[in-house]
Amino acid sequence: MKRAVQATILALLLAAAPALAEAAADDLAGVRQKSTLTEGDRSLIRDYVEQTVRTMLTNTDPDRGGMVAARETLLEEVRDAENSTEAYRRAFAEITLEVLKESSDLAVSQPARVNYVMTLVGLQVLETAPLLESALAEDPYPASRYWAAKGLARLAPKILQGGGPRMEGRIGETIGKVLQQGQPTPVLMQLFEVLGAFDHPRVHDALAEGTVKAAKGLDASDPLARRMVSEVIPALERAYSREVRPEAKQALLLAYAALCTHIMPPLDVSPPAAGYSRLMAELNAALSKITGEDVGFDSTDPLPLQQLALLEWVERLVRTKRISRRPEMPAAVEEAVKKGGSEPASDAGEGEGAGPPAD
What we know:
Layout: H1 2-28, H2 39-58, H3 65-79, H4 86-102, H5 110-123, H6 129-138, H7 142-162, H8 164-180, H9 185-197, H10 201-216, H11 223-242, H12 246-262, H13 273-291, H14 303-319, H15 331-339
Helix pairs in contact: 1-2, 2-3, 2-4, 3-4, 3-5, 5-7, 6-7, 6-8, 7-8, 7-9, 8-10, 9-10, 9-11, 10-11, 10-12, 11-12, 11-13, 12-14, 13-14
């Protein structure tokens, strides 16, 4: 008898849930147009947000439609400038962030984690940065790490305006550690976009070290990877022009050298050929601008000759002690160096006689 009563009460509660959600949404109609919110108004918003967040993180619909609907419901309240005041939207975003912080433990499954992070991204407030960093560094799911990286990229302008150098440096350090773990290309693109937006010593270090790491696994036949490198090249140039630390300048040049050695164009003429040639031309142009020198690169040459010209940049940087060592080269590139008749320079930084890098 007791179980029957409990089952009946549970059924009634479940049946009433949608009605309660509708009632809460209707109640918000009287708050949306207020320019000043009372504690009662904020309490009403919080009740609504708590219920919606719980639905978003615990919904078990096979298609996860309930999660998506809950997420969009929350974000619509933050975005709807036509039907609400700025004070309401700001309060709604603040309260949503508070509830998300408190509810993080409920986001266990991959769909829940992804929707959790996507909601943080959609809030577009500076205070989400630490949570996005945490998700980027610790989340076990690639999809949610991607959204965390994307969120930081979208937030970069606000971080530049109001985050301050300390936040930039902290984010740069976090991204640097994440890059050393290796990441899929879509995540790498977002992370390098963030690093390219900031100007901080830790960011420059992360950019240089991350580029060397990413270059080792670079598949330049992937258009997305080529696009990523096209964005990294000017980011390295900006960082180099703003750096005053000799060792940091050397690290940035080493990053360029790593890219030069890991772009492997196809031997035959194929659709990706134009993309390879453009990428190599961009690398050459950046190095020419930084050093004021020329290695005879010609974008009309066959791709193997263009590649050899990039390898000449590497050898020149080693010979002139702008970098202390030659970056690790793929076996095919080592073979190309031999065929091109280029004599490997000694690794000056690994023994005696290493001089300071040139500016």
